[in-house]
Amino acid sequence: MTANPLLMGHPLSSPEHAKHALLYMYRIRKFEEAVEDLFGRGMMHGTMHLSIGQEAGPTGACLALQINDQITSTHRGHGHCIAKGADLTRMMAELLGKKIGYCGGRGGSMHIADAETGNLGANGVVGGGIPIAAGAALASKMRKSGTVAVSFFGDGAMNEGAFHEAANMAAIWKLPLILFCENNKYGMSSSTEKAFNLENLADRGRGYGIPGVTVDGNDVVAVYEAAEAAVARARNGEGPTLIESVTYRWKGHSRSDKNLYRTKEEIEEWKDKDPIPNFIHKVLDRGILTQEQVEEIQKISTEQIMQAVKEAAAAESATPDGLLEAVFKAVSA
Amino acid sequence: MSDRMLTMAEAVREAMGIAMEEREEVFILGEDIGIYGGAFGVTGDLYHRFGSERVLDTPISELGIVGAAVGAALSGMRPIVEIQFSDFTAQAMDQIANQAAKIHFMLGGALHVPLVLRTPQGSGTGAAAQHSQNLEPWFANVPGLKVVVPSNPADAKGLLLSAIDDPNPVIFLEHKLLYKIPGRDPVPEGAIRIPLGVSKVVRTGKDLTIVATGIMVNKSFEVAEKLAAEGISIELIDPRTISPLDTAPIFESVEKTGRLMVVQEGPSHAGYINEVIAQVSGSASFGNLIAPIKRLAGMNIPIPYAPQLEKVAVPQIADIEAAAREIVKNWR
Prior knowledge:
The complex is a heterodimer.
Chain A: H1 15-40, H2 56-62, E1 70-72, H3 78-83, H4 88-95, H5 129-143, E2 149-154, H6 161-172, E3 177-183, E4 186-187, E5 190-191, H7 192-195, H8 204-208, E6 212-216, H9 220-235, E7 241-246, H10 264-271, H11 275-285, H12 291-314
Parallel strand pairs in A: 1-2, 2-3, 3-7, 6-7
Antiparallel strand pairs in A: 4-5
Chain B: H1 8-22, E1 26-30, H2 46-54, E2 55-57, H3 62-74, E3 78-82, H4 93-100, H5 103-106, E4 116-121, H6 136-140, E5 146-148, H7 153-165, E6 170-175, E7 200-203, E8 208-212, H8 215-228, E9 234-238, E10 241-243, H9 248-257, E11 260-267, H10 273-281, E12 294-298, H11 307-313, H12 317-330
Parallel strand pairs in B: 1-2, 1-3, 3-4, 4-6, 5-6, 8-9, 8-11, 11-12
Antiparallel strand pairs in B: 5-10, 7-9
């Protein structure tokens, strides 16, 4: 299966755009539900960090991006990867340790990259991708390629030195960078209340002399509009923007999480703010899509994920052949 | 044959200038490398030749600098990072060891990181424990990094040009005491490259093999010249690239001399040079040894400040000389 061509534009600007936004949010949701299921049945190895509940962030942000715009992602990165246009079968195959997986089984869930869609990779280190995205933006500026870079990271990463150093460099050099914070309220078990003395994390933008905006991260339209403004600013040579996209992860941090640090009521409260029905109401109210069309998209996304699981499960397992040779890229003569 | 004698700082600068003229993707970034010309004067006039964009002064943000270089390298550029003192790479270690070194392997070969990180290392300047370390084993222990330790200006130029060409991250460790002294050999004009991963037999001999890196090559060379007058013939090998390591010339030499001494500036415990010993011990050349292998390395202490204390912390010429004489005299 090949990746769908990426679409750009406002999610409410046409039925095509609305379908795209909905399809990608469903894809992320269903991909991760499938991952959780495979883990539960002992068919998947390692660990997993699910972003269920956060689908509007990557979907809205990537609707503002061209295919050659670059992103860096996080340990909780399936959504960014899918939203940027990655192939679902190769993603699932990577998680299942297959040869056709994005990393040939060498990286797993936390290290999927896709050069063709400008995805410079998920990252196992909190904040690790932020300076890398700044560097991609620096390259864009030096080469005058007109591309922007978006670094996705969580609230936890904003307390890493990497965030500070990258934000400052991007600001002084006016790099075409979007610092996209997915504030899902917890860095593992530490709430933002415990880890910050700030109401809005976007206020940190002022400290770097760049705009900081806070948006409802469960509203794909609001996310798109903020991202689009930041991308326009970046392409215009005006420098970086910090976007704080406020959202919530329904699932635990990873497999080991017993949810001891938050209440069931809080989780339920956020489930009521599910980004997918939130968007469906909008498109139905405005008559952009019909109920039948919405159901059709849901059905298609389910089929796509089932197909990806099927193809990935049937694919050849990765083998240890060539591991030593894979450490370095061969020097061409 | 040119007879141009350059210092290592001049040779490194020349290599960077050539690379920047050859390819517009090459640029340098680091602290105080612009108008200031670099803390050790290595970038010198490059700022005036290539401008502020290609000789990019950065804030004091080692992690950010290396991270930005990784991102630029992933996006088609060929960055050369200067970290002002190798000790400060500790600030940037996530981007060096977790990101740059692993990206090509971990991401399935989809991306690669053509990045050179140059940094001065070593003791002898009275700058104490946080400005004087030899960190060769830190980097040599990370799969995915190539590690180059030039011992003279001609090698530094040729190796740096190859490092800039290389599609992988290369750590280039320059000894700060070598910056201002001319080498023994002239530096060729033009873009002469020396491949990474090829050991150099600096001097041939038949009684004792010495393997050393960086400034220890120079110290060992002096000892070899001196002891030659006493009839002790020393073969000196400079691996130049400690990762990957070209062991064949070392094995061959040990087979010939039957005696091996390894010399390293950094602390002995878990040092890089121990890898040379392990490789020889596991090779057929081990059977040719007629003497125990001698290891000379730094003491297992942070580098102290006072000159009389700093001196004893790392092998000096007198130490190498005494050890070489002893091994050859005692084991016949």
